[in-house]
Design goal:
single chain, TIM Barrel, alpha/beta, 432 residues, nine-stranded mixed sheet, three-stranded antiparallel sheet, Enolase-like, domain 1
């Protein structure tokens, strides 16, 4: 069926933090297709620009919509490239990555409907990924249990403590993670009797702990109480840029120390100030190696700031020399941007990436980022954002591009479980 875009209309809605975000209705002769975009609070400085929701809505309605009317939504790359051209900047700063992405996602859904195939299958087709990823697979869930950093109001500097059940079935993995989540709630309630059970932006618990090992011990105790201690691995989102002290930036702000700033390169002298201590890059590296030795850690996301290239390189080299299979995951470093991913590969900085469509602004570019990372032999983890919506697009995206992992927050709160529930349905569909 030759489908055509008849109308595009954007509006403001609220995200899970109660902040305005953008939702788009895209109407074709086959019906209505909606999409809404999330927003992160812990952002890499190289992410595509997010406009205020009111401005993004206006940009869709007044600039993008008239240009796309009559276009075939099944021409995803053509439509995405047209919006990129309309914007005309390197970082989507004119129209806003949120405005462009909302339309890109809605268009992708309309394209799948035009071909009468599931969204995940359509994503694989438009990415020409059939030969590269083979049969469809469900990504392993990296389920959030404890939050800190910019996502919570406690004194924990590390941002996310997640578990990955070592079970092939997504359904069983999610069940195990959910049981540990509820057991963890019981432990926190017992340990901090006089305090409320607080949660962070993404539904993970935010207990009054300061040292990362305290959080890790709580998780492992919850798992052990259910006899799951040997069935889980742990992934930490450090989000180190949130507590790094950038010597180059600080020195350049002071004219008297400009010469000193010029002598500093690649963040070698980068320091990290946390509530439980201050670390140099080298000291932080040693701290991570100690955690890896003592805990079942599968991966660390953003262990150093996006400017501390030397810290990333040394850590990856050290982990490789120890023949460890620990994933060193770029997020703020790589921001779902093919150019940044190439830099990280050249700089020998990581072996995995976080993929967030709103960091780059179009589905075409997000697919390309995933393809590029996989061509390097890296693992890919598709991710939600801290301010999210009920849109479950990333679940189909993860399956479509053959992602290894997905993180969508805690196994609680509607905007989080929407993603997990969509994957349960896809798994059931693939089995049948």
């Amino acid at each position: 069926m030759n489908s055509k875009i008849q109308k595009i209309k954007a509006r403001e809605i609220l995200d899970s933090r109660g902040n305005p975000t953008i939702e788009v209705d895209l109407i074709t002769n086959q019906g209505l297709f909606q999409a809404s975009v999330p927003s992160g609070v812990s952002k890499g400085k190289y992410e595509a620009v997010e406009k205020k929701a009111k401005i993004a809505v206006n940009n869709v309605n007044k600039i993008i919509a008239p240009k796309l009317k009559g276009k075939n939504p099944a021409k995803q790359k053509e439509i995405d490239n047209l919006m990129i051209k309309l914007d005309g900047t390197k970082n989507k700063s004119k129209l806003g990555a949120n405005a462009i992405l909302a339309v890109s996602m809605a268009c992708c859904r309309a394209g799948a409907a035009a071909k009468n195939i599931p969204l995940y299958q359509y994503i694989r087709e438009i990415g020409n990924l059939k030969l590269e990823i083979g049969n469809f697979k469900i990504p392993a869930p990296s389920v959030l249990l404890i939050e800190g950093g910019a996502h919570a109001g406690n004194e924990l500097d590390f941002q996310e403590f997640m578990i990955v059940p070592k079970i092939k079935s997504f359904k069983e993995s999610l069940r195990v993670a959910s049981e540990i989540y509820h057991q963890l709630k019981t432990l926190i309630k017992q340990k901090y009797i006089d305090l409320a059970i607080n949660v962070g932006d993404e539904g993970g618990f935010a207990p009054p702990v300061r040292v990362p090992k305290e959080a890790l011990n709580l998780i492992l105790k919850a798992a052990k109480n259910l006899n799951y201690q040997n069935k889980i691995k742990i992934i930490l989102d450090i989000a180190a840029s949130q507590f790094s002290i950038d010597p180059i930036r600080n020195a350049k702000q002071n004219r008297k120390t400009k010469k000193k700033a010029d002598k500093i390169s690649n963040g070698v002298d980068e320091k990290y100030k946390m509530k439980f201590g201050v670390f140099t890059s080298e000291g932080l590296l040693r701290y991570y190696l100690d955690l890896i030795q003592k805990y079942p850690i599968l991966g660390l996301e953003d262990p150093f700031s996006e400017e501390d290239w030397e810290g990333w390189r040394k850590f990856k080299s050290k982990v490789k020399s120890q023949k460890s299979k620990v994933l060193i995951i770029g997020d703020d470093l790589t921001v779902t941007n093919p150019n940044r991913i190439k830099l990280a590969y050249k700089g020998k900085a990581c072996n995995a990436i976080i993929l967030k469509p709103n960091q780059i602004g179009t589905i075409t570019e997000a697919i390309e980022a995933g393809r590029l990372a996989k061509s390097y032999g890296w693992k890919v983890m598709v991710s939600h954002r801290s301010g999210d919506t009920g849109d479950d697009f990333i679940s189909d995206l993860a399956v479509g591009i053959g992602a290894d992992f997905i993180k969508a927050g805690a196994p609680a709160r509607g905007e989080r479980v929407a993603k997990y529930n969509r994957l349960l349905r896809i798994e059931e569909e693939l089995k049948s």
